[in-house]
Each structure stands twice: as structure tokens, then as C-alpha cells.
């Protein structure tokens, strides 16, 4: 008899729903982090902060604060992986998927692939943070001790 511990059936509807959920978490919390950063420096909000690769840069204070918002967002998304994906070995897959769709969105918004080195560095760092922290949190949960009922024992 085969073991059914941690056996999963491939469910494409669940996977698509999880991808959509992670994209919603990514953009919702990125918007909140950017709004918080904008309120600190009294800057106007725009979609350029999310999709324009020129908004991320080391030269200006606004660019550095936007990079900070992206990094804080990767930590928030790692919590999303922990709460909704719950599998350590799937964290990298969902992280790359979220950032791939973000790159496609930036490509469409700018009409060409992002060319700034700072955009690539920030997104690779965010991908690494999100995947590693998400995997750590999920693995901690997966490796938690399974309680064994220590009820009355019978002598057989």
C-alpha cells in the first residue's frame, strides 16, 4: 500500500488562482509601500513608480526610496508565499512567475525591455529575498514536529 503523506494531485485551476493571488499581493503591497514612501517625501504617485525602469535609480532620493519600497515588498510577498502557497519547493516557482509577469508589464508599459542596470539589480535582489525568505518560512512550517497522541497504552 502506497503512502499518501504529502501526496498532491496536479490542479491547474489552483495553480492559476495562486498565481493571480500572488500578483494581487505583489501589486497591492507594492502600491502601499510606494504610497508610504511618497508620503514621507511629499511626492506625487504615478504608475511610473511601479512600471517605469527609470524610476529606480541610485542617483535620486526618490529612486532610492522606490528601491527600498521594492525590497520591503519582497518581504511582504514572502509572507504571502508562506500564507497561501505553503510549500517550500514551490516558492521559487511562484517568485519567478510573479517577477516574470512584472517584467512583461514593464515591457508593455515602456514599449521595450527595461534597459537600466539598477532595475535589473533591484528585481534580482527582490527575487532572491522573496524566494529565500519564503522558502525559509515554509520549510520551518513543514518541518514542525508532528504531535503524536500519547494516550493510554495497552499491553498486547
Fold and architecture overview:
This is Protein SYS1 homolog. It is a multi-pass membrane protein. Pfam families: SYS1. With 156 residues, the chain is mostly helical. Helix 4 packs antiparallel against helix 5. The protein is built from five helices and no strands. The model has no long low-confidence stretch (mean pLDDT 88). 67% of the residues lie in helices and 0% in strands. The chain has a domain of 103 residues.
Task: Give a short overview.
The protein is mainly alpha-helical. The chain contains 5 helices and no strands. Helix 1 (12-41) runs antiparallel to helix 3 (61-85), helix 1 (12-41) crosses helix 4 (91-110) and helix 4 (91-110) packs antiparallel against helix 5.
Features:
membrane, single chain, elongated, Integral_membrane_SYS1-rel, 0% strand, Integral_membrane_SYS1, 156 residues, mainly alpha
Structural class: mainly alpha
* Number of continuous helical runs: 5
- What's the Cα radius of gyration? 20 Å
Gross geometry: elongated
End-to-end distance = 25 Å
The largest sheet, given as strand count, sense and whether it forms a barrel, is: none
Percentage of β-strand residues: under 5%
Which bin fits the share of residues in helices?
A: 55-70%
| Overall pLDDT | 88
| Strand count | 0
Low-confidence stretches: none
Amino acid at each position: 500500500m502506497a503512502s499518501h503523506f504529502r501526496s498532491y494531485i496536479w490542479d491547474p485551476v489552483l495553480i492559476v488562482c495562486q498565481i493571480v493571488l500572488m500578483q494581487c499581493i505583489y501589486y497591492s503591497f507594492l502600491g502601499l509601500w510606494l504610497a508610504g514612501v511618497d508620503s514621507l517625501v511629499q511626492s506625487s504617485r504615478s504608475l511610473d513608480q511601479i512600471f517605469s525602469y527609470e524610476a529606480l535609480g541610485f542617483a535620486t532620493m526618490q529612486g532610492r526610496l522606490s528601491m527600498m519600497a521594492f525590497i520591503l515588498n519582497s518581504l511582504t510577498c514572502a509572507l504571502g508565499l508562506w500564507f497561501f502557497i505553503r510549500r517550500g519547493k514551490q516558492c521559487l516557482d511562484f517568485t519567478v512567475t510573479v517577477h516574470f509577469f512584472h517584467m512583461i508589464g514593464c515591457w508593455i508599459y515602456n514599449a521595450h525591455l527595461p534597459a537600466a542596470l539598477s532595475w535589473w539589480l533591484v528585481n534580482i535582489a527582490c527575487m532572491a529575498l522573496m524566494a529565500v525568505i519564503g522558502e525559509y518560512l515554509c520549510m520551518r512550517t513543514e518541518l514542525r514536529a508532528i504531535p503524536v497522541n500519547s494516550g493510554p497504552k495497552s499491553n498486547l
